[in-house]
């Protein structure tokens, strides 16, 4: 113990003998940063870590008398400045700096990652850390996992609406499979009786669903035309199309929509109105076609106009089903320009080429002799006649057949006049000085030539019928010229009168519903 105290006293005396300059701390000067490193740091855009914060310089002692020992140690200063220079951060290499020549980099990705829950340090992750799932081993979802509130609401409402639609469909199917409510429904479906079996339930559902769909696909009425009037009945019915048959519509930038009437349309309609019950059967809607029809036929020679509402929608196409006409199909002919429109009854159809606005067209008028001949011969089934002209141009083929028949008729008449003898009635008439017309059992129409005289002159039956039709047409044209304006004015007045009566009736019903009730003579309310 005493030896240790003696040793410590010796060390203290030795230290007191040392000069004071030996134990004085050396003066430290902060190392000045090089200009190059400061220039590069301005582009580094790298925040210094807390460890790299520069430390405050040590306090320098107050100035005093210079010590020769301090002046004699200049070689120690570079060695003492090295630790300060090593603490300076290394500059970022130039190739790792952001490229600002293309503009400031976008921070959208960083904001989305931060909103998704990633730490801000993910902005500085290197490629190796990103590939290894950096960020301290913390699992982060991909960017696609972020869903906005509006997107979540949209998905929720979509699922909700699908669920409601599915539930409604199931309820509707179950309701449509119920038993028939009355005898009318049961009579419409005699092959599907009432019952609670799944098979009968499904059959009733299909039957009711078919009726619901057919409401929009089938014609508006089961009978498109009323029953024929015996006082104004025509033996045949002729259905005529509108678009590219009687008219042609086109649109141009200069004039807009324009409608052209086919040459001979008035003559065709007015002449055949004496032989046929004319029906306009078009695929155009009522609102579009009705004004055109009234302009084309102001005197209403077309008795029954039928529009899009009278057609049938089948397999994606519009079809004119003649079975809804309420007429005998053996007496019905339809003229159309589209074979798909008459595919239900092709044996009743005459397909013509569409008219494209040619002012010199004569196809419509050339068809009149054929239609007139059918009426003259009074065929029991027009479908057999149309079958014989299938695949041929009807006006040309009919003219060829008529020429052959005329040659045969003239040949027979020549042979009969050469070898024949007058009959008993003819000889008696010659003896009495009577003309053959006076001996005929048929009474001709006023102004019409006797058939016997017509035959003697070489006229065939269709020639006589044609002359009669021409006379009737001339009389009709004369009546239109003389009284046409008066007929149109009377029709206009009748329409205005009907509108006024309808308005007065409607106002009377409203006043009766909301107005004060009148009191009778006995004090009671009428």
TrEMBL record:
Keyword annotations of the record: Membrane, Mitochondrion, Mitochondrion inner membrane, Protein transport, Transit peptide, Translocation, Transmembrane, Transmembrane helix, Transport
Subcellular location: Mitochondrion inner membrane
GO BP field: protein transport
Main location as per UniProt: mitochondrion
UniProt domain FCP1 homology: residue ranges: 231-374
InterPro entries with a match to the protein in the record: FCP1_dom (IPR004274), HAD-like_sf (IPR036412), HAD_sf (IPR023214), TIM50 (IPR050365)
Membrane topology, record value: Single-pass membrane protein
Skewed-composition ranges (Pro residues): 55-66
GO CC, any one term: TIM23 mitochondrial import inner membrane translocase complex
Region (Disordered): 1-148, 507-526
Signal sequence region: none
SMART domains: CPDc
Keyword Acetylation on entry: no
Pfam families: NIF
Composition-biased stretches (Basic and acidic residues): 516-526
Family the UniProt entry places it in: Belongs to the TIM50 family.
Role this protein plays: Essential component of the TIM23 complex, a complex that mediates the translocation of transit peptide-containing proteins across the mitochondrial inner membrane. Required to direct preproteins in transit and direct them to the channel protein TIM23, and possibly facilitates transfer of the translocating proteins from the TOM complex to the TIM23 complex.
SUBUNIT field: Component of the TIM23 complex, at least composed of TIM23, TIM17, TIM50 and TIM21. Interacts with preproteins in transit.
PANTHER family xref list: DULLARD PROTEIN PHOSPHATASE (PTHR12210)
Protein name: Mitochondrial import inner membrane translocase subunit TIM50
